[in-house]
Structure formats: structure tokens, C-alpha cells
Write a structure and sequence with these properties.
With 170 residues, this protein is of the alpha+beta class. Helix content is 45%, strand content 24%. A hairpin with a 6-residue loop joins strand 5 (127-134) and strand 6 (141-147).
Amino acid sequence: MSTPAFSSPVTMADPRWKPSSRAPLLWAVNAALMWIPVFAAQAVWAVVDGAWTSWPHVTVFAASAALALAHVLVVPGWRYRVHRWEVSDTAVYTRSGWFTQERRIAPISRVQTVDTERGPVDRLLGLATVTVTTASSAGAVRIAALDTEIADATVTRLTEIAGHNRGDAT
């Protein structure tokens, strides 16, 4: 079986911009908040059962604590080393994930909407997420944990570029 001939080699450079330096803190706080119901359920179970120090309670608590610590202390730094984004005159590029990593390229000609999202923890830390909705079945492209000013500037730039582009956006 022969390989297809291409006119020139295609290289896919990594996007160059990192999220905000506060992104690991955002991800750590969100991870910690996610573990609260797990530990609350364990406390209720121990109160109802009346045996705080029995081996099932201690084992489940120790396993939960180990997983929670890894999720809160290790994963945010790992994600920060992976997450990248870039906007050019022709496309939006992202790389995200921590365990499973994803690279996305959204051509400007396919951009339908550009949104900004700021949850409570995001607002507290001065961060925002930019979501670029395209005509792709793979879903929107998200640029997470940007400083608010950078997110606003990115939305403005994408809006200007998309306004000048006469693509079909379908």
C-alpha cells in the first residue's frame, strides 16, 4: 500500500499562549469544591453507621483523601503545563486536557458565536473562559482560565476577524 503524496509537509505547531498564571488556583479550588459532597456523604455514612473507625470507613476515607489530594495538588499544575491557546487571522487553536489531551483548530470562517463565561470562582480570581462556537459536530472550542482583560480583548479580536471574513460559518 502506498502513501498519499502531499505537495508540502504539514506541521502543526503548538499554540503559544498559556492560560492565566492563576489558572492552577482556579482548577484546584474547583477540584476541592467537587470533593466536598464526597466527604460529606462519608461523614453522613459514618454517623448513620455509628462506626467512624471501622475498616470500611477508614479505607474509603483514606482512598478518597489520596484521590482528592492528587486532584487538588497535582492535576492543576499538570493541566497548566498542557493548556495552550492562540488566535490567528485564520483560526483559533487550543490544546487542553490533563489525562486525555485534545488539540482543536477552528477556522475563522466557521465561527458562529463568541461567548465569555465567568463563574463565581472565576470572578473571584479575575478570570474568564472564552467559548468559540463553530459549525463543527465536535462542539465549541473553549479557551479556559484567561485573565478578564485578555478574554475581553480576545472576544473583540475574534469578533473583528470574523466580521471581515466572508466564510460560510456552517
